């Protein structure tokens, strides 16, 4: 049952994922050739999905760490290696056989180590560019312009140090996908995606007024003002208590919920059947002695 309960061959499906994958990659390859690009580096998860790779968790979205490399004339892109030794990614995405090799592409790469140290981010960018350059040389594309969808100062400087010419890669990708919705399959997938959503609020005090609970994720700001906010948000989560007059007060510490670790969502329900709503918070960190306790 690895691939779900609904993968059947006796019902009509309005899209063919195998055909869609091949058509998308073919469009992207044609666009690279049209725009004179030797390759394109893509950090945006939407482009990863478009090219047949999976989309990582949203908190890493558009961080300069997790990327795929599409080289002109070489079919499917190069993607990160399977961190589960071939038992997870390769088993589910066999079309990347021989392409699941990139070591520098890591979803967590800019959350490890000391991101505020002046040499940390430049060093990470150098690792990315060194691996990209090696693959470009392998396919004879190192002298051609390399498109990129998003960048920062340190990444640009890393490309300059490596002697690679980078340029806009968004135009080529947009050109490749702007007609994608002419086929029914793509529109169907968008409709399915838009049908999925989640909420994170509840009436904790049973006063028919919603009390939002805000779960925070980190960033790496530079100014003193932003640093203060970063320290506050990265310290944990925030519970805002509804005063009943259209305003809220911070009740995080009084309720004892700031240290809820890596909160992914919550739902109020009567956990102990005492007639009062309890707030259940799901977290991404193990809180037991081992993973078996979770």
Give the SSE layout:
Blueprint: H1 17-34, E1 39-42, H2 45-50, E2 68-71, E3 79-80, H3 89-92, E4 100-102, H4 120-138, E5 146-148, H5 153-162, E6 166-168, H6 170-177, H7 184-194, E7 201-202, E8 211-214, H8 224-234, E9 238-242, E10 248-250, H9 252-255, E11 263-269, E12 278-283
Helix pairs in contact: 1-6, 4-5
Q: What is shown here, in short?
A:
The protein is an alpha/beta fold. It has helices spanning 17-34, 45-50, 89-92, 120-138, 153-162, 170-177, 184-194, 224-234, 252-255; strands at 39-42, 68-71, 79-80, 100-102, 146-148, 166-168, 201-202, 211-214, 238-242, 248-250, 263-269, 278-283.
List the keywords.
294 residues, alpha/beta, four-stranded mixed beta sheet, four-stranded antiparallel beta sheet, 12 strands
Q: Looking across the biggest beta sheet, what order are the strands in? A: 2-1-5-6
Shape annotation: globular
Order of helices and strands: HEHEEHEHEHEHHEEHEEHEE
Number of helices: 9
Which band does the percent of strand residues land in?
15-25%
Give Rg in angstroms. Answer: 23 Å
